[in-house]
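Input record (one chain):
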Amino acid sequence: MTTTRMPSQERFAQRTAAARRTTRRRVLAGVAALAILAGLGWLVFASSALSVQQVAVTGAPADQVEAITAAAAVQLGQPLARVDTAAIAKAVAAKVPAVQAVDVGRSWPSTVTLAVTMRRPAVVVKDAAGLLHLTSADAVQYAVVPAAPKGVPIVVAGSRAPTAAGLRAATGAVTALADHKAPTVTSLSVDGGLVRVGLGSVTLVWGDGSAPDEKAAVAMVLLKATPKPTLIDVTAPSAPITR
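The corresponding structure, as predicted from the sequence alone:
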């Protein structure tokens, strides 16, 4: 049997040609991948195919949806991927005080979503003009209402106008007392930064906004004392006073 050996020069030429073909295929594959990525980038960030067509608001009452949508000021027709969600959330929070928090997202292919958490009233503050302001637990006055909602106490000013710290103390007192299942708050007075709470026939001198849970816990114990006190002072909860 005769074996024919390929000259080394010819073998080298074949290997070179094969390497060139492999390189060419890799280059073409890379170019194709770049073209695909460029096309996807254009589709997502520049074309109208994935543009904003609507804004969906959830978590808000029907009478607030229009105001929230207007505050968001989402530009319809812009690419959904280029929507500045942080700026929208900031605008809604600034322009609609009744909104406590908003999570702005994208729902492909064409919707901006606003998941809203609304403020809830902890107290109602009556101002010098007689207007009633719904006030949340973080002491933000966010709406004017004709009457206090059922079960929400009205803050009455003392000799001094309520301060921001006083309002926070008042909302903290109401929240802490509710958490400890105290009797219904029947009156709420804020004198500067100091708070008094009416619990039926008992006056609870609350003081400032410090240690609300401790104050509420002490008050609940003293409310069960015999004879029942008419005044409980928990300004210093470690040394309460009763009469």
